[in-house]
Amino acid sequence: MNLLCANRSKPSIAAEYAMSDDFRKLFTEGLVGLYLLSYLLTGNLEKAEQCFVAGIEDVVKSSSVFKEWARSWTRRAIVQNAIRMMAPRPDHTARTIDSPDLGDKFQGTEEKDTPIGTVLVLEDFKRFVFVLSVLERYSDQDCSLLLSCSREEVGEARMRALQQISEIHHSNAASGRPADTEAVFD
Distance (Å, rounded) from C-alpha 141 to C-alpha 166? Predict the structure, then answer.
């Protein structure tokens, strides 16, 4: 007795996989969130656009994906392209907010006092770890595999990123700038 009849199983199996229309819908409806993810990871508008477009291309070229995994697969394509593009590496020389190359990064821009601006000020590796582990909720193990580093380096970078973001927030509060606590990352 053959329990898997080829004619009956193909339509049900095909219905379980994401098709190009499913991905088109994900990129259309999730445009702002996916682009924001690209921007937060790359820290640069031009590179974010390249990363976003490469993510679309990767998803189109990819093999079959279950519909229930399509959203995470799409976000993962953005993450992997950003990693290839930026090649973030752990910086074992801890910097502080007072470092001129970090503190002046957004001098005179509107973004410097926003939650996005505080993330963009982070050095590449800390920014990647923060975005992946805190905002995207990747485990330390997944982060370490994606970023080719140890789990300890991920934990240390996340701690330094959180400290730096806290320092920026306190610095803004001390200077009388309004704290923007609106959740822009979801």
Answer: 25
pTM, two decimals, is 0.76
Around Cβ 98, how many Cβ atoms within 10 Å? Answer: 9
Q: CA angle, corner 8, sides to 5 and 9, nearest 5?
A: 80
Task: Provide Rg for the chain, Cα atoms.
Answer: 20
Q: Which two tokens stand for residue 4?
A: 């898997």
Q: What is the pLDDT along the chain (186 residues), one digit of tens a residue?
A: 443 434 444 556 667 888 878 888 888 898 999 999 999 999 999 999 999 999 988 888 877 788 888 898 899 999 999 999 999 999 766 554 444 344 444 443 455 558 899 999 999 999 999 999 999 999 999 999 999 999 999 999 999 999 999 998 888 777 766 554 444 444
Report the C-alpha gap between 42 and 46 in whole angstroms. Answer: 9
